[in-house]
Amino acid sequence: MFSDALMLLPKALGETVYMVAVSMIVASAIGIPLGVLLLATGKNQVLELGIANKTLSAIVNCVRSIPFIILMVAIIPFTRLIVGSSIGTTAAIVPLIIASIPLIARLVETSLREVPYGLIEAALSMGATPYQIIRRVLLPEAMPSIVAQLTTVIIVLIGESAMAGAVGGGGLGDLAIRYGYQRFNPEVMLATVIVLIVLVQVIQFLGNMLAKKLNKK
C-alpha cells in the first residue's frame, strides 16, 4: 500500500503545482492592479478617490476575513457555474483565486507604501501623470518588495491547496488524507510533508534570489 501511494506522489505533486501556478497567475493579474488602486486612490495619493477607496478596502477586508475552508464550501455553487464541478483539481482553483486576490492586493499596497513620497513629489513637479507615476516610479521602486510578497502568497497557496484536499481538491493534500490519514499510513503522511517542505524551500529560495536581483539599492 505504501509503494502504491508513493507511485501517486508525482501525480499529486503535479496537481499541486498546477493548482498553485494557475491560481497565482490569475490572482496576480487581478490582485496587483487592485493593490495599486488601493494605494493610488487613498488620501493624498495620485488618484485620490475617497469613496472608491473605502468601497474597495471594505470588499477586500470582507473576503480576507473568511477562512479558506469556509470560503471553499460557501462558493460551491459559483465554482460549479465556472468549471462545471465542485470536486477536483480544477474546481479547487476557483476558491484559491478568490482567497488570493485580496491577500495579493493588500501586500502590493503595503509594498507600494514603502516607496518614499519624495520620489512621487519629484515626479509630480516634473509634470508626470498619475499613470506615469505608477508605472515609472511606484512599481519599479517597489518591485523587489512585491516579488518578496508574492513569494509569500505562493507559499500560502501551497498550504491552502493542501487544505483543498480535504474536500476532494486533489494534490498532495488529497493524497495525505486518503492514503495517509484515512488508511492509517503515517509513512505516506511523512512523505507528503517532506515534499511540501522541499517545495516551499525551493519557492522561497527562488523568490529571495529574484527579489535580491531586482533590488538595485
From TrEMBL:
Keywords: Cell membrane, Membrane, Transmembrane, Transmembrane helix, Transport. It is found in: Cell membrane. InterPro entries: AA_ABC_Transporter_Permease, MetI-like, MetI-like_sf. Residues 13-207 form the ABC transmembrane type-1 domain. It is a multi-pass membrane protein. Its main location: membrane. The chain crosses the membrane at residues 16-39, 51-76, 82-105, 146-168, 188-211. It comes from the Bacteria. Pfam families: BPD_transp_1 (PF00528). The keyword Membrane applies. NCBIfam families: PRK10782.1. PANTHER family: ABC TRANSPORTER PERMEASE (PTHR30450), D-METHIONINE TRANSPORT SYSTEM PERMEASE PROTEIN METI-RELATED (PTHR30450:SF1). Belongs to the binding-protein-dependent transport system permease family. This is ABC transmembrane type-1 domain-containing protein. It comes from Megamonas funiformis YIT 11815.
